[in-house]
Design a protein that fits this description.
Helix content: 40-55%
Order of helices and strands: HHHEEHEHHHHEHHHHHHHHHEEEEHHEE
InterPro entries: Cyt_P450, Cyt_P450_B, Cyt_P450_CS, Cyt_P450_sf
Number of domains: 1
CATH topology: Cytochrome p450
Bound molecules: protoporphyrin IX containing FE
Radius of gyration: 21 Å
Family: Belongs to the cytochrome P450 family.
CATH architecture: Orthogonal Bundle
CATH superfamily: Cytochrome P450
Pfam family, one: p450
Protein name: Cytochrome P450
Largest sheet: 5 strands, mixed
Keywords: Heme, Iron, Metal-binding, Monooxygenase, Oxidoreductase
Shape: globular
Strand content: 5-15%
């Protein structure tokens, strides 16, 4: 049987139909698949099943902090000359384990409760309407560049108090950075993007210290300046995490979600006829067309899983797409059903690292999709769907989605 490689997960034909790909992987009858080279970091394991995914994501023996297995040096203060070293010296909540994880997550979690997020509804609606106003007369747009990207990046930058006029800059930087581990040729460009990003954030923090406002960054600065145990690096890295995690994934939820509905016009019409279905429709789009393929963990000790020895320090990739298409959990796993009631999908992960921004992503998804359905009922693709290009950055997302309306 052909050896599976990391590249198979990101091959365009598998990005186009990831459920068919995960079904083929499942048919190999191997609950764990070994990969020789994961993101240039050596070998690792891919976990396919829903039940295994839940167990591993809740199991404290599977950890995040790779510094525990590496003796690489801290980067010098003068610049960033080694991405990995920088990464390890700039911890944020998604890269660490308790107790640091608990401390870093608590600092911002109050801003992301469903009640706080609900307060953003009218602003998100206003942004969605303004974006459609700008293209309405043209009768066509690129759904990604004109709508799916600017909406979530504007929301998260406003929450943080970052000038939204710089949003295209952030897109370029995050795209440059995403290449790390995917394409060694791009490493230098990624480091340059990171360097520019960090310089920008340092200037921004200095400005916010002088001009505090009613935003998340000012709140974090205040906590730090009042003696909270948040280092400058942690602060920078947390803002960086919120900006990147806070938009790329949602861009892809909107892009992948609209594409899935355009491929299933009867589901599009059903949702148009009954917008009260929007909340469960978004859950189904997260399950069926989710943006994140892998949640990553390291084995903190030698372990045995399904008779397979996993060594301390080895990387374990939990395949969220495969888990969300596990027939044992979802008997009609390959069917897009926006009326699905029983839907404990794992698109936002599980356990202590469960997505902090899930209430925001859900709200953005509901408002954005609801607005498209209402204002552009005739939305249709203007490109053969087979020709669509997929990003190569570790997520599942479209480069662009040209549509007419
Ligand atoms: C964590 C998915 C949107 C912030 C995660 C994780 C997943 C995920 C799977 C867990 C990763 C792991 O266990 O290794 C998604 C999806 C989104 C989305 C599918 C959109 C559809 C957002 C938004 C924000 C956000 C809008 C806003 C700031 C975070 C943060 C974490 C996280 C901070 C780390 C939580 C922790 O480590 O405790 N997300 N996310 N995400 N997400 Fe999201």
């Amino acid at each position: 049987m052909k050896q599976v490689t990391m590249g198979d997960f990101y091959a365009p034909e598998n990005m186009r139909d990831p459920i068919a790909f995960s079904t083929r992987l499942r048919e190999r009858q191997e609950p764990l698949i070994h990969l020789d080279n994961v993101y240039g970091m050596g070998g690792g394991w891919v976990v396919l099943g829903y039940h295994d995914a839940v167990e591993i994501l809740k199991d404290p023996r599977f950890i995040k902090d790779m510094r525990k297995f590496s003796s690489r040096p801290e980067p010098p203060d003068t610049g960033i000359n080694d991405f990995l070293a920088w990464w390890m010296a700039m911890p944020n909540m998604i890269l660490v384990d308790p107790p640091d994880h608990t401390r870093l997550r608590k600092l911002v979690s109050k801003a992301f409760t469903p009640r706080m997020i609900e307060g953003l509804r009218s602003r998100i609606q206003q942004i969605a309407d303004e974006l459609l106003d700008a293209v309405q007369d043209k009768g066509k747009m690129d759904l990604i560049a004109d709508f799916a990207f600017p909406l979530p990046i504007t929301v998260i930058l406003e929450m943080l108090g970052v000038p939204t006029t710089d949003r295209d800059q952030f897109r370029a930087w995050t795209e440059g950075l995403a290449a790390v581990g995917m394409d060694p040729q791009q490493e230098q460009a990624a480091i340059a993007a990171l360097d520019a990003f960090i310089r920008y954030l340092k200037k921004f923090l200095a400005y916010k210290r002088e001009h505090p406002g009613n935003d998340l960054t000012s709140g974090m600065l205040q906590a730090r300046d009042q003696g909270d145990t948040l280092s400058e690096n942690e602060l920078l890295s947390t803002i960086w995490l919120l900006i990147t995690a806070g938009h790329k994934t949602t861009v892809n939820l909107l892009g992948n979600g609209v594409l899935a509905l355009l491929q299933h016009p009867e589901q599009w019409r059903l949702l148009q006829a009954d917008p009260a279905l929007l909340p469960i429709a978004i859950e189904e789009l997260l399950r069926y067309a989710g943006p994140i393929i892998f949640a990553k963990r390291f084995a903190s000790e030698d372990l045995c899983l399904h008779g397979q020895n996993i060594h301390k320090g080895e990387l374990v990739l939990i395949d969220l797409v495969a888990a969300n298409a596990d027939p044992k959990q979802f008997p009609t796993f390959d069917k897009l059903d926006i009326t699905r009631e029983e839907n404990q999908h794992l698109a936002f992960g599980k356990g202590i690292h469960h997505c902090l921004g899930a209430p925001l992503a859900r709200l953005e998804g509901q408002v954005a999709l609801g607005t498209l359905l209402r204002r552009l009922p005739q939305l249709r693709p203007t490109i053969e769907l087979e020709q669509l290009a997929w990003t190569y950055d570790g997520l599942r997302g479209l480069v662009s989605l040209p549509v007419a309306f």
